[in-house]
Amino acid sequence: xxxxxxxxxxxxxxxxxxxxxxxxxxxxxxxxxxxxxxxxxxxxxxxxxxxxxxxxxxxxxxxxxxxxxxxxxxxxxxxxxxxxxxxxxxxxxxxxxxxxxxxxxxxxxxxxxxxxxxxxxxxxxxxxxxxxxxxxxxxxxxxxxxxxxxxxxxxxxxxxxxxxxxxxxxxxxxxxxxxxxxxxxxxxxxxxxxxxxxxxxxxxxxxxxxxxxxxxxxxxxxxxxxxxxxxxxxxxxxxxxxxxxxxxxxxxxxxxxxxxxxxxx
Length: 265
What we know:
Translation, Eukaryotic Peptide Chain Release Factor Subunit 1, Chain A, Nucleotidyltransferase, domain 5, 8 helices, 9 strands
């Protein structure tokens, strides 16, 4: 890690999180361009980033060797092109890592501002490590009485993890001439489905050591889910989010990211 560049290296245990959630970083060489830069908060504007990158490059140019400058000239257009695809908004900062010979191009949204940086070296991960100590990864579960989807929140990225489908549950209207036996059967199906979701949560928390758990979904499913959680998982519940599996996974990523950002204000 780039300790010689004036970055204080924190305890290294956050590195496995970064490599697990951003595996493309494993392929990076010591000729990787790392850039930390501010995000235009409201709307994407390519000219804004043209200006920002020129300013950051000019600021660091004197510290770069001729070989480093060749890397910057090669990789910066790739980062700009990816920015035009991602079009990030509503996050304060971003880190970019680019190494074309190794097939690496990764942009990571950050939950807070940090120092602007531009380096050609192994990936500069120390600032991310420091942020992870302050903002450890969270697990988000969007539950429905028949299915569930989990997401990981790391830094300001929301990454889909696992989807689970349970048995079909018929809708039983309250009141009227409902069949008690049929009602119990459907309630038991909901309970069985949520028990499977609890097992999934337990496996994911054990594998990643999440420090926070957020739940979302219809009240009936979430109430049953919370009831079945063991004490070890109940104690890491950080709150409820508003999200529904009626939305696509991509839509859920944006909805969840926005709500989690609001919890950090």
